[in-house]
User: What shape does this take?
Amino acid sequence: MSAALINLAAEQRSAEVTDWSARIGWVVGLLLFVALVYWLMRQGWKWRGSLQSDLPELPQAPGGSTAGDVRLRLSGRYHGSTTAGQWLDRIVAHGLGVRSRVELTLTDAGVDVVRPGATDFFVPAGRLRAARLDKGIAGKVLAEGGLLILTWQHGDRLLDSGFRSDHAAEHTAWVEAVDLMNRSTTTHDAPVPAAHAPAAPHTAQITTEGTAR
Assistant: This one.
């Protein structure tokens, strides 16, 4: 047997020894890094919640017949709320930062937001400011028009809440219905124009011209 064949046989018998201590060290280090990132995210969430402690409790849906007739329903997902016009300024107080399944119901009284596994809330019609189609909110980016954004007043803050229907074609109907509701409310609450205001009672002018003479 030649020397080359002997060397080849020796190389085949020499299996590489696995350095288990190094591998275990890498795995432990990776787990510690992931735990640190998770802890930092949790602390950031708590810090943001403390900054939003002035936000009042979420309004709840009225009971009985005060809710009015149902105009629209929507089943889908709730993707979060932000300060209006600032899609990365997430609102986390009172569970508004928790993503979940959602059932939306639009009535004459407002929008009922039912979230299985998270806090339900209600947007009264008088606080509903606008609705639009968008593509991103609170770190969630979808296709253009993939999100239904409802803008509403809560306390001293104007909020954007993002929803995605299981049937995205329903978004347009919601935008139109909310816009119609707002226009009806504005027309109803608008001041009476001066031309149609009741005339002021006529007051006779008193002159002292004759007296002066």
